[in-house]
Design brief:
The chain is α+β, with helices and mostly antiparallel strands and about 180 residues long. It contains five helices and nine strands, in the order βββααααβαβββββ. Helices cover about 30% and strands about 30% of the residues.
Length: about 180
Amino acid sequence: MVQYRPPLDDRLDKRCDVHSARPQEIRYNVVDPSGVVSFVAPGHLGKMLAAGASASPVTLVDLMDIVQPLDSRVIEAVRHGLLTFDEFVVTGDRTELDGWQSRVGEIERQPFRVADAVLRELSLRPAALGLTIVNLVDRRIIQLEDRYGRIERADRGRIRVEGRLVGRYYEYALPEAWTLLP
């Protein structure tokens, strides 16, 4: 369960600033009963997704609802990208995927549902700082490649409002049913 805590001090997390020209990004894949969603987001989201997983969500929507108060800007960007994908790709056939790709341009940075072999391959391509898989079905978090910071079983992180760090923290502890690899 995610718990909110007051700040211990006013030091800023220097690893990621969403307002910098080039935020430090990781590719995240979230597996739920309906399939796999892949997106690129700032590295700090990994800890937030672990915090969300500590509440044992069943679906991506559940996970996003839990994480929303921790960084609404990033979560809204992912939701918007998925809405765009869903608008263009109904059946998952190649024609629809090509239409979506021509609409959004650079697909590597866009949220998408893994609908074919091309997107599956793309979903397994790390972003600048790595690749993390959050499997809600098997209750597993896998950091395949990580150059940002290791996700811990229990930790705390900074809440962001409108993408900016604020003087509030959250804490989480993954239940024993969750596996954290490596």
